[in-house]
Structures are given as C-alpha cells and as structure tokens.
Design goal:
Elements (H helix, E strand, L loop, with lengths): L2 H18 L2 H8 L12 E4 L8 E6 L4 E7 L4 E6 L5 E6 L4 E5 L2 E4 L3
Antiparallel strand pairs: 1-2, 2-5, 3-4, 3-6, 6-7
Length: 110
C-alpha cells in the first residue's frame, strides 16, 4: 500500500479514535455508582418451644466479644460472641428477647 492510500485509510480511523476517546470517561461517569455492600446487620431468634417448655436463643452478625441478653421472662445475662459473630443460649424461658452490644440493640424474633 502506498503512502497516500495509507493516509486516506488510516487518517479517518486515527481521527475517530481521538473523537471517541473523550466520550469514554463521560460514558463511565454516567454509570451509577454502587456503594459497597453494607455490613450484615446482627440478627437474633428463638426456637419454637421445646418439649421441656424452654427455647433456644441464637444469633449471628455480631462483633466478637461480650454482649448482654435480656428477656421479658426475667432471664438475662452476658454472653460471649464467638469469632464468627454468633452465639447460642440453650434452654431459656420462652419470651421476647433482645441483645445489646455496644450502643446497638437487636430484637430477637421467633
């Protein structure tokens, strides 16, 4: 291919790439920014009433360390949250329970 033919063919392609290049960042800026996923919220639940008339209390998504559990049936106390963020308290009276850790209060369902 001679020089004149190369300029005629390649010239518009090179020019088009310069025209399109500024549009690429603008196109990326138009894509909505998705915030990073939120840390999962702590959850807590009670099992159904067992044959012995008690329930099991369990939770997850907490920060490892101590937390305070209290319930409507008068049961309460400190539990140690494991490294995986979970805990279990076996054989507690049925009732409504909450877990307080730091300034956060988590209501238990079940």
């Amino acid at each position: 291919m001679n020089r004149r033919t190369r300029l005629l063919v390649l010239g518009p392609l090179v020019a088009a790439s310069f025209v399109a290049a500024p549009a690429a960042p603008a196109a990326l800026a138009a894509v909505p920014h998705t915030p990073p996923a939120a840390v999962p919220a702590a959850t807590c639940s009670t099992s159904g009433v067992l044959e012995n008339g008690k329930v099991h209390l369990s939770g997850g998504g907490f920060t490892p360390g101590p937390a305070y559990v209290y319930g409507s049936a008068g049961f309460g106390g400190t539990v140690e949250i494991a490294q995986n963020g979970g805990f279990q308290v076996m054989n507690v009276p049925p009732g409504q329970y909450s877990v307080r850790q730091g300034g956060e209060l988590t209501q238990c369902s079940g």
